[in-house]
Every structure is written in C-alpha cells, then in structure tokens.
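Contributing new records

If you add data, match the layout below exactly. Sequence lines come first and carry their own label; structure lines follow with theirs. Keep one chain per record. Anything else will be rejected by the validation script.
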Amino acid sequence: IERISDRLDRKGIVCFNITKIDNSDMGHYNRQGLKAALDAARQKAEFIAKNEGLKLLMPYEIVETANEPSMYSAFSNVAYDGGSGMENMRRIVRRYSVKVRYLFQ
C-alpha cells in the first residue's frame, strides 16, 4: 500500500479511502480468533465449576455469536497534505464471541 500511495499523483488529492483489503491468511486468523474465544469460554466454565464445587464434563452446545469486524471503523484515511502517510492507518480489529453451554456434574 505504501508503494501504491508513493506512486500516486498527489496533485489535488487530500485523502483516499481504502475500502477493502483481503488477506490470504484470513481463514487462519478466523480460526485463531474462534479458538481464543472457545478457550476463554472453557476457562470461565472451569472457574464456575470450581467455585460451585462441580465437575466440568463437556460442551453441550456451541454457538458462534460473532465473527465480524469490530464496531470501530475498519477503513482508514491516508492524508497527503500533511505528509502523514501510512502512519495514520488504523488497525482492523475482529472480535470473536461464542456461547458455549457446558454439562456439569
């Protein structure tokens, strides 16, 4: 993106918007996010089980509740007139959430 922005004729350009960037590893990142959400749900269930004197058996139901970009803007403006360039890019954040129901004994 930096190379593309360096080659643009900047005459009259104040800013431009990046509307979409695809990553060939997005499936891998999605699996990592889902795994982290499942791990967090299991840790919470283990905490509840220990606190209540129960034994955690296994997941009963798993529902992925969110796999979307965060509510923050996923797009960034790159301003040229101030010479700010790519350092003003904002990170694209994805949030993962799962609802997991566990069986306890």
